[in-house]
Protein 1
Amino acid sequence: MDRALIRRALGDKVQFIQGDDACAYGALLAGCNFFAGYPITPATEVAEQMSILLPLVGGCYIQMEDEIASMGALVGASWTGAKTMTSTSGPGFSLMQENLGYAIMTETPCVVVNVQRSGPSTGQPTMGAYGDMMQARWGTHGDHEIIMLCPASIQESLDLTIVAFNLSEQFRTPVLLFIDGELGHMRERLVIPDEDELELVERPMFNGQGKYLPFATDASLVPTFAPFGSGHRTYVTGLTHNEQGLPRSSSAEIHDKLVRRLADKINNHRDQIIRYEEFYADDCDIAIITYGITARTCRDVVEQARSKGIKVGMLRLITIWPFPDDTVARWSECVQAILVPEMNLGQMIHPIREAVAGRCKVAPLFRIGGEIHTPVEILTALEELQCQLC
Amino acid sequence: MSTLLKPKTAAELRDVYLRQEMMPTIFCDGCGLGNVLNYTLWALDELQVDLDQVVFVSGIGCSSRLSGYVNADGMHTTHGRALSFASGIKAANPNLKVIVFTGDGDGAGIGGNHLLHTIRRNMDMTVILVNNYIYGMTGGQSAPTTPIGGLSTTTPYGNVEYPMDICALALALEAPYVARWTVNQPYPPIKSIAQGIAKRGFALIEMLVPCPTAYGGRNGLKGVEAIWQWYRENTVLLDDFEHIMEFGTLEEQEEIKHKLKVGVLRDTERESFEERWAKLVEQVKL
């Protein structure tokens, strides 16, 4: 696609927009030329924005009959070489699990934005939550790894959507970008990066040397790509398949090799995938480990607490999956307690506890109902934790 | 157009169009799916379609294995969702020809909503929906097409549900090309599949096939010949039907009134999604 056209479609360099729109902007900058989706609060504005932008730059927007079909269309389009994205919220994300697994199994690059709302079921459609963190990890059936990013601002929603596309292309796997109803609908200042500030990654392409084996890999463990229509006559199946792509669903050996490779191609490159932000890492007794919109409140509270003499540090997770357990383990060796505020009834606290492995106290601070944590409640929790440690 | 010479024999057809590594097929003796594949290959050959530019898409079930047997790009997707994937392929690259193999359970049961909306959008693709009145791969459970009273492993006392007329659905949604055939007569379906592939917009070709293993034997039709005979006795060509209803005797009309009509049920022109989208982009593109 014409880069100048994309930039023109996005308009002013500095804008005051909401998180949903920022995801759409990020997608366009990343080169997304295909979007399939279904309306759902609070994610609808992503689709609306894509329906405005994509025709302007010659891309394709298609509103499907449901989220199952949206995910299917994404995979089909991606195999023609398109860069694809969809957006949804909890109920729609539940419907996407089937074809999300297909995308993992068939190593299809695509980006799924989930603007989370309170569940279970229809729950609180207009309210933010972080209740799908574990569904993201294990929602589709079978053994698999997943990549997931969690921005904490409007600017970061744009920036990380580009990163999501890059990771998805680099590792040929679906990448999840999770925000929530608050971030999705909140407006903030957004600066659109210039072309020379952008780093874009494309999927590894088949170089035309020798016979194309669509699922054979080198040390990167990522196969090279040849789109449908390029004459290689590729067969893609969700069944266990060999390097040629042909079904071999009764072979224990081929299944073991394939599914372990799909996991290893992500796990072996954790250093390239995992992102986080640290505050006062070398100078604290208590740590807050958090992510998403909650991290914004926490960041403010860290300064308040330190001014009151509580030595607090903070680890903000940006990459949620694969989980940065080495980083969390390192923090647990230096602090006496870790506070985990989450907008759910305890999801990321489980891998945190596993990484901490009993080295320090791990204290929950869960809030549901659609409202974000107040600074006071986090500060109070820190003061109580401080008392317990004394 | 293909640079290959036009094959003249079935053996040549096999060598040109089939993925040898996938042989033999999974199909049972007497299954009609081999016939459907055969007719499709003859149709492709008649059109001299460049196979490099065709993607065969399918869902899950016996009929959905067909996509893997053709030596072309293929996508064997999830149960019922073939049309969603096919829509993505076609919308993202309208230059590709998309042919979908699906079954009655896959296409009209679990995939019914996708069928409905893909027709409504008039996506430019050819859907060959193979109807054997049963879920064959899982061993013979009742399908949305199983006749009333039909016996299956999940309707052991007879089916109480009304079956679905898939072509009627496609006609109601204004698909530009709708046809229904049995496997008994090879030449009309070959011609019809070729028409469907050449048609811009959504073409539905319903193929009625025998499933001796999971349906026939259980329903008093022992062996493939009995099922073929049943089709001969219970279907009527659309042209014959119209002729008899206009010129036939009352007895002749009474005899065919309740038979299933086979033939080209609609052949018209309607702008496809891809054409309409391309026009829109032409209008609004910066």
Protein 2
Amino acid sequence: MKRKYELNNFEPYQFADIRDHLEAMALRGWRLERMERYFLVYRRGEPKPVRYALVFHPEMGYLEPAPTPEGEVYRDYCRQAGWEPVTFWSTVPQIEVYCNEEPHPIPLQTDRSIQWRVMGDWLERRYVPRLQTGAAACSLMFLLSAIFCALFLIAPEDWAFRILTLCLIALLIYLTAVPLIQLASANRWLSQVRRAEEGLGEGPDGRLSPLLRWTRKVSVVLSALVLLYYVWYTAAQGGGIPSLVRSVGQTAVLLLVWWGMGRAEDWLRRHGRSQAANWAGYGFVVVLAFFILQLRNSIF
Amino acid sequence: MAREKFQTLTEQMFYILLALQEERCGADIMALVAQITQNRVTIGPGTLYNLLEDFLSAGMIMQTKVEGRRRSYVLTQQGKDRLLMEKRRLELMLADYRHMTAEPSQELRQGSAG
């Protein structure tokens, strides 16, 4: 079966953008199969109008076997209205995607207040706490790395190396800012949702703002420039092609390990018996990943 | 200020409680409500699921049977009382409507005569 892989750079609050995108892909004959950490995976199908919707399950834990017993009941109700479950979002497992091939289906939620309440519960119980932990950890890690890199600025090295260090510091500061921006966005989103639940506002529109869309494009361009400069420096200054191959190889292994951990999470959710057992299993995966990363240093 | 839950019932809440005067499976409620309202009121599956959970937590319905994934519910006495209260509220509103539209107020009659 023919498949298509598309980079998944959506944020969870883009529920309307995601829905519109999946419907546009279905019109072109690509039906969503999986939402992975890095990719949206489609399978080839007949081009036709298909409605999509995102469902939030605030009661569901991160590594809880999916669907839960309550989730199965939810699915039965949805199937009766013509909505079929498609997939869970790998990195945000409380979000499940449904599709419906009827021309005018009954919406999954016909009470807007309930829709906002469920979304708000998910934000408060699952998403914002996770972002808070991530922001604290990433900020500390990247700031320390940036300070460490700054030490190289005062070392008697060549200008090319100093420029590279400056670029890396800028990138680390950006990576420190991103989780903080995500946390601020999530808190703003939660505030809008709670107000909408009480009938005091329209609620979030589920779309990436033009400013954030522009910021994302700029950051992609800047990251690409930094990466190109790094490649040039490694090849021209750092030890030639062998050094470049070594760097690319190490980075590829890191990305593969990160991807593999995501697939392991999906597997555990599909086949695991309980959340506790899944966390124990995931612990083994983390240890294995650690050893692979240590091994890459001796290979490359 | 946050509205107290179930202070007034939405149409969907009302019809779910109405449907559960008899023991019914949750999955049958959507079709029944569409049938008795002639598709005027539709309950989405997500809304149905969340409202049944809310009613269970509030003690207005109770789960009577679990057959695999099919769960049956019925009103509790608290649910019946709440439904009756809502019925009375709607009757009062209807009476007020009939009063205001069938019998213009004394002031209006005096104003039109003068």
